[in-house]
Specification:
There is one protein chain. The chain is mainly alpha-helical. It has one domain. The protein is 50% helix and 5% strand. A two-stranded antiparallel sheet has the order 1-2. A hairpin with a 2-residue loop joins strand 1 and strand 2. The longest helix has 25 residues. The protein is flat, with a radius of gyration of 18 Å.
Length: 161
């Protein structure tokens, strides 16, 4: 690599670090970290993949008129992973605001689907990717003959790239 490439690399990184990374969400001001390690999003992306595979397996089971397979990931695990991801992507100064948005005391807390939409937005902002409209989401995990024991039935849809 040339010195010009290194200079440009450091310039782009410096611009990202000094750029305004704040945004307002439902009246709360939040700030995305300037840089995050790529490992931050691996668990989130793996959980999303597992949820997609679960939905596909449920559809196949329903079509074959068989019992649903055990899910790879529960709704509770998905929320936990999304929470970890959001907290890792937000500047420490934004964590109280995030808690207010998520609090069960909030008269209109973020919904299951909205949490994942916000995580997608945070990942794009932190990584410098273009921010597109959220992907269309299904109304939740598909079920066949067996009912779910999980608390919520909605899942985030995969991002379309």
């Amino acid at each position: 690599m040339t010195d010009a490439w290194l200079t440009e690399f450091e310039k782009r990184r410096g611009e990202r670090e000094t750029a305004d990374r704040t945004f307002t969400l439902l009246g709360e001001q939040l700030t995305v970290k300037a840089t995050v390690a790529p490992q931050i999003t691996i668990r989130f992306n793996n959980a999303r993949r597992d949820a997609i595979l679960d939905a596909q397996a449920a559809i196949a089971a329903r079509e074959a008129n068989t019992d649903l397979p055990d899910p790879r990931i529960t709704d509770e695990q998905m929320i936990e992973i999304a929470e970890e991801t959001a907290r890792a992507l937000l500047d420490d100064s934004s964590l109280d605001a995030w808690e207010r948005l998520r609090s069960s005391d909030n008269p209109a807390p973020l919904s299951f689907r909205e949490i994942f939409e916000v995580c997608d937005y945070l990942i794009a902002r932190a990584s410098g990717l273009p921010i597109d409209a959220p992907a269309a989401s299904s109304n939740g995990r598909q079920t066949g003959g067996r009912s779910s024991t999980a608390g919520s039935s909605s899942k985030a849809a995969p991002r379309k790239h």
